[in-house]
Amino acid sequence: QVQLVESGGGLVQPGGSLRLSCAASGSVFGINAMGWYRRPPGKERELVARLPSGGSTNYADSVKGRFTISRDNAKNTVYLQMNNLKPEDTAVYYCNILRYGMNYWGKGILVTVSS
């Protein structure tokens, strides 16, 4: 089993920045990919950014150039640096890990972009 704990969300004004963190614990060996998804109000969950082990990073078109995903293997932590935030980035953000073909999810953390 893998446990994921997200942190760093909150309220920010348009144009501002936030950094989300997701710490993984438990059976963290054999992770194939780490990433972030989000569920905007009234919409389906969507991919934000994904970092496969040894592969190319994937970003949603809507966040390219503004968001950066990174990973600290020593800390089993994945980060999402979000810059130039827009109101349409408001959502619950979920950390995701793919391990041996199974998806693990964090509980989600709210990011609100509003003036």
Write the layout of secondary structure elements.
Layout: E1 2-7, E2 10-12, E3 18-26, E4 31-39, E5 46-52, E6 58-59, E7 67-72, E8 77-82, E9 91-99, E10 102-105, E11 109-113
Parallel strand pairs: 2-11
Antiparallel strand pairs: 1-3, 3-8, 4-5, 4-9, 5-6, 7-8, 9-10, 9-11
Description:
- The structure is a single chain.
- With 115 residues, the protein is mostly beta strands.
- The protein is 0% helix and 57% strand.
- The chain has no helices and 11 strands.
- Strands 2, 4, 5, 6, 9, 10 and 11 form a 7-stranded mixed sheet that branches.
- Strand 4 (31-39) and strand 5 (46-52) form a beta hairpin.
- Summing up helix and strand content along with how strands pair, one would put the structural category as mainly beta
Topology as H/E string?
A: EEEEEEEEEEE
Instruction: Determine the N-to-C terminus distance.
Output: 40 Å
Proportion of residues in β-strands? over 45%
Instruction: Find the count of extended strands (DSSP E, 2+ residues).
Output: 11
**Average residue pLDDT:** 95
Number of distinct helices: 0
Low-confidence stretches: none
Shape: globular
What Rg do the Cα atoms give?
A: 13 Å
Please estimate the helix content: under 10%
Biggest sheet character: 7 strands, mixed
